[in-house]
Amino acid sequence: MVGHYGVGVPVGYTLRDGDLVVEAGEGRAIDISTRGVLLETGHPLSPGMEIELSIAWPARMNGAHGLTLRVSGHTDGSRESSTVVSIQDWVVAPALAAMS
């Protein structure tokens, strides 16, 4: 069984169609698991699109430095203001390095 964790943290996202950036914005990661993220953006995102997320992770490295979870995947479906993102790859990085 895959665990789901309610996180409610800020997210920056970039929606792509190949090399073309279709949309970029901010939202909140409402729920996260090893397979996906429930992303709240205020409007539904188109299904089947490539997406990159930069999630402000609540844990700190060495108790002081912020962390960012960078996720790449695709949008699976949307309802009202939320979109399900299937995770294909991810990395955790120090916040400053992850935002570049």
Description:
With 100 residues, this protein is mainly beta. The protein has one domain: predicted glycosyltransferase like domains (Thrombin, subunit H, Beta Barrel). Helices cover 4% and strands 71% of the residues. The protein contains 1 helix and 6 strands. β5 and β6 (82-94) form a beta hairpin. The longest helix is centred in the C-terminal third of the chain and has 4 residues, at 95-98. It is globular, with a radius of gyration of 13 Å. The termini are far apart.
CATH homologous superfamily heading: predicted glycosyltransferase like domains
> Ends: how far apart?
35 Å
Number of strands: 6
**What percentage of residues falls in helices of 4 or more residues?**
under 10%
- How many separate helices? 1
**Could you report the average pLDDT, rounded to the nearest whole number?**
84
The run of helices and strands is EEEEEEH
The CATH topology is Thrombin, subunit H
**Unreliable sequence segments:** none
Q: Which outline best applies? A: globular
